[in-house]
């Protein structure tokens, strides 16, 4: 074998090994209980309290319930006191755990000193940075957002600044105790450059990179930090789409995602979303960014919005408010 043959053989072997390892890592995701086992005391061993931002509905509410069911007291935070109080009552009655409510609007500039004051005496073992907002429910180009300057500020405050400030607030206690878990909720659409959701997707890319960087910095200090990037989950942000094999209920998604806590710095949280992420990144961007594809996406969301509004109006007419 001459030198060139040796080089090509070595290169081919290295490529085969690389993709073989990646395939093996991919298939591990289909068996989370086997590959990423958690002890029965995993959650309570982190600390007494879990903090969940955006905890009054959707994914945040589901995380709060799931962590309480696993023995943790929970702090739930959002801007609607009546909804928070109702969720707190339901969690307390269902699980017997303590629930603390903090009313705050994360799209505002200066809310964190008050939050820190209310959290300072708690032994916080888990933080779920779930709160987030879309600049517009109907996908549109960047310059088409209403009140663009205000929208930019609110999205960055809610999706980016909140994640960083809450980590700054809670991470020191975890570092001192050398244990803790931080889950930062990203989005599946952050997997690629995503036109019509450009600002939202970019804010979630920040969440992922921030989480992965923090994990590298603090993994040797007993702290697990993970970005969770769901695709379809039936929440208000997604127009309460009907659940199916791809669009999961918040409860099903959260219970699935908790099985992947030891799966690394980023996970899609469920088998179907892992496959969706792989497919999305396998399709050439020229196809995904084609005008016909983007127009089809926009038309689909508009159609779903109209259908939802019609259903809501019909229920109101029949005296069946929900």
CATH superfamily of the largest domain: NAD(P)-binding Rossmann-like Domain
> Which CATH class of the largest domain is shown?
Alpha Beta
Order of strands in the sheet with the most strands? 3-2-1-4-5-6-7
Computed CA radius of gyration, to the nearest angstrom: 21 Å
Helix content: 40-55%
What is the annotated CATH architecture of the largest domain?
A: 3-Layer(aba) Sandwich
Our count of helices gives: 12
* Percentage of residues in strands: 5-15%
Unreliable residue runs: none
Shape: globular
Q: CATH topology of the largest domain, which one?
A: Rossmann fold
Q: Which structural class fits the helix and strand makeup?
A: alpha/beta
The main pleated sheet reads as: 7 strands, parallel
Number-wise, the strands total: 7
Number of domains: 2
List keywords for this structure.
2 domains; Rossmann fold; seven-stranded parallel sheet
């Amino acid at each position: 074998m001459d030198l060139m043959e040796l080089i090509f053989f070595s290169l081919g072997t290295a490529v085969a090994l690389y993709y073989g390892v990646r395939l093996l890592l991919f298939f591990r995701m289909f068996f989370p209980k086997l590959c990423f086992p958690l002890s029965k005391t995993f959650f309570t061993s982190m600390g007494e309290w879990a903090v969940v931002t955006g905890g009054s509905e959707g994914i945040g509410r589901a995380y709060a319930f799931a962590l309480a069911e696993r023995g943790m007291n929970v702090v739930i935070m959002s801007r609607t006191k009546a909804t928070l109080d109702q969720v707190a009552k339901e969690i307390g009655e269902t699980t017997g755990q303590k629930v603390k409510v903090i009313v705050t609007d994360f799209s505002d500039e200066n809310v964190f000193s008050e939050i820190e004051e209310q959290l300072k005496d708690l032994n916080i073992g888990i933080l779920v940075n779930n709160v987030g907002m879309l600049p517009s429910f109907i996908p549109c180009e960047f310059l088409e957002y209403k009140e663009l300057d205000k929208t930019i500020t609110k999205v960055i405050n809610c999706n980016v600044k909140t994640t960083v400030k809450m980590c700054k607030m809670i991470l020191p206690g975890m570092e001192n105790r050398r244990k803790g878990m931080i889950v930062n909720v990203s989005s599946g659409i952050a997997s690629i450059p995503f036109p019509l959701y450009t600002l939202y997707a970019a804010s979630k890319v920040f969440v992922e990179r921030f989480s992965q960087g923090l994990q590298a910095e603090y993994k040797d200090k007993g702290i697990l930090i993970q970005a969770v990037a769901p695709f379809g989950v039936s929440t208000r942000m997604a127009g309460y789409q009907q659940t199916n094999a791809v669009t999961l209920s918040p409860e099903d998604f959260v219970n699935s995602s908790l099985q992947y806590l030891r799966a690394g710095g980023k996970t899609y949280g469920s088998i179907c979303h892992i496959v969706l992420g792989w497919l999305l990144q396998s399709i050439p961007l020229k196809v995904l960014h084609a005008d016909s594809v983007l127009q089809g996406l926009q038309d689909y969301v508009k159609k779903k919005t109209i259908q939802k509004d019609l259903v809501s109006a019909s229920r109101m007419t029949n005296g069946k408010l929900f």
